[in-house]
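FAQ
Q: What does a multi-component entry look like?
A: The components come first, one per line:
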Amino acid sequence: MSLREKKKIETKNKIFEVSGRLFKEKGFENTTIDEITKEAEIGKGTFFNYFPTKEALLLYFAEKKDELTYSLIESETAKSIHTKDKIKNLLVFLAESYERDKELTKLMIFEYIKYKRGTGLKFGEDQSRRNRLSRILHDFLGNGVKKGEVREGIDVKTAAETLTAVYFQSVMVWLWSESDYSISEDISGKIDLVFEGIGS
Amino acid sequence: MSLREKKKIETKNKIFEVSGRLFKEKGFENTTIDEITKEAEIGKGTFFNYFPTKEALLLYFAEKKDELTYSLIESETAKSIHTKDKIKNLLVFLAESYERDKELTKLMIFEYIKYKRGTGLKFGEDQSRRNRLSRILHDFLGNGVKKGEVREGIDVKTAAETLTAVYFQSVMVWLWSESDYSISEDISGKIDLVFEGIGS
DNA sequence: GTTTAAATATGACTGCGGTCATGTAAGGTT
DNA sequence: AACCTTACATGACCGCAGTCATATTTAAAC
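Then the predicted structure of the entire assembly, as tokens:
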């Protein structure tokens, strides 16, 4: 690795570390780029060589967090339990991983939506969050059909999207609510419902 | 009505009208407050007597739109058809009302999420969108149970929230996707799924 | 009609995100 | 080692959202 590459990584990590600290100390909005660059001992312009906007930092945070979370998931999902429980465990685990840093999570999710607006993503190109989750659920459901735990003849893609929808909705409502109810129970209940159906 | 009140309404409408025109002409981001106030022939500071931020305009737009939409809905929902179809009609109607002005709709939804972040809404206080929709669905499902079209013993609140989740997810994915598929079919399919259930 | 009080209007000003022309240093070339 | 090229660093600068002290208009009080 060349000296240049080393310095680049160092600078990016420095920005990451400093901004993380400042965000925790005084919040995202109250932290200015000037502060970050002063603390990180770089010029203001340099910041924008690494992150195109202030908000891009949030996406970077989200990526780092996702890396960790999804690597944990993949080692957890080998277990041979009932498909419904597998899905419950997965979604509850994900939801609970947001419990720390509720404020920053909101901003991150928020930014993620905004981000999708700006970029013209081709289908299948977006590997993060929603789609990544849909893929895992898709696998689970496919196996569920084979095991006879999921109704045959179902459209697996639609089912995966529906479960994803339920999950995101629950997380959003939970994040934005004042009260402190159990996200696990909420999600579990809704998954039960989707498995059993509403119709008579 | 006093002269003051008249002028206030006039000014607010003028801002609304001018900004609407400019947003359509050149987009939200490319329109500055300076432009709006110049076109509306008011001082810059005056704008902020009517809207606390530029984004607040989007919420005002959304409100106006919702007023119209929900007034149409209430006259439509009297029909005595099967509960599932009633729900399908409702959600498809709502989704299709976003077909015009896809760009502005995105910004509005986006802003709505942001807005919820800032305000400490008490439960039941938020009469708009998500909760309003949940309430209507709640009613539909309640009647559905009575008519024997919805499975008895179901938690109506959870079911309403699940359907809302499916609806919002569909709209979001649709709004942010490049392709031009049928939102009606997508939502219909998912409602069928939720009614029939995933489990075997 | 005059005075007083309250509401509203206003634009110079501030603060911050983001740009860009210019400077500096790394690494390749001879 | 002297020179060149390319990548990266930098801070003065710009544009725009939002503020605030001051001015103006309306309404109330007498």
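Q: Is there any commentary attached?
A: Sometimes. For this entry: Residues 3-26 of chain B form the longest helix (24 residues).
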